[in-house]
Write a structure and sequence with these properties.
Blueprint: H1 27-54, E1 59-65, E2 68-74, H2 88-105, E3 112-115, H3 118-140, E4 144-148, H4 151-162, E5 167-172, E6 179-184
Parallel strand pairs: 2-3
Antiparallel strand pairs: 1-2, 4-6, 5-6
Helix pairs in contact: 1-2, 3-4
Length: about 190
């Protein structure tokens, strides 16, 4: 896509193109953010249709965080059914939503779905678990093996352990039995 620069868009002293005031974000970043907003809109429409079919109430909130579209569904009394035991239904619903977005856009996406605040609450619990396991590994000078977790869960635990000095973490095992192991440093 080429862009035409008009004389009013040029710096008279250098002849180079200028940007509008407040237009400090590079075009590639805006384009990427626009794509993420579009992905969120497609996901929101998909989930809205699904909620209608299921006759569930819920408010859909769209956001962009850390380079990914984030869609949250909150407010309905039946929404816990869309989370399932340990988030298994939520994981499946997230994958279906990602596929719906991919079908519409033609490209893979990293969309994150949260229902009834489950992921945000789980993130807090897992951060606490990671910090506790790190402290236990430091105090006992022994590795702490946690129960198997999803990639989402392991990432949060690894991040929490990384914030604690004197320990390190790694994942071991094969899916779906992959787990975090926290080792004392040294």
């Amino acid at each position: 896509m080429s862009e035409t620069v008009t004389p009013q868009d040029q710096d008279e002293s250098t002849g180079t193109a200028t940007t509008e005031p407040g237009d400090d974000a590079p075009r590639a970043e805006r384009s990427s953010e626009d794509q993420l907003v579009r992905e969120g809109d497609i996901a929101g429409d998909y989930l809205e249709r699904l909620l209608d079919i299921l006759d569930f109430d819920g408010d859909i909130d769209l956001d962009v965080e850390a380079g990914r579209a984030v869609v949250s569904v909150d407010g309905g009394k039946d929404l816990e059914k869309l989370v399932g035991a340990r988030g298994d239904v939520l994981e499946a619903l997230q994958e279906l939503t990602r596929l719906a977005v991919q079908q519409s856009t033609g490209s893979r996406n990293r969309l994150m779905l949260d229902v009834a605040g489950w992921r945000s609450q789980r993130r807090s619990e897992l951060s606490d678990l990671g910090r506790t396991a790190a402290q236990e590994a430091k105090d006992t000078n022994r590795a702490q093996r946690l129960r198997p977790m999803t990639p989402f869960e392991r990432k949060i635990v690894h991040d929490a352990v990384a914030a604690v000095g004197g320990v390190r973490s790694e994942s071991e095992g094969e899916e779906p039995r992959r787990r975090v192991v926290v080792h004392p440093a040294g």
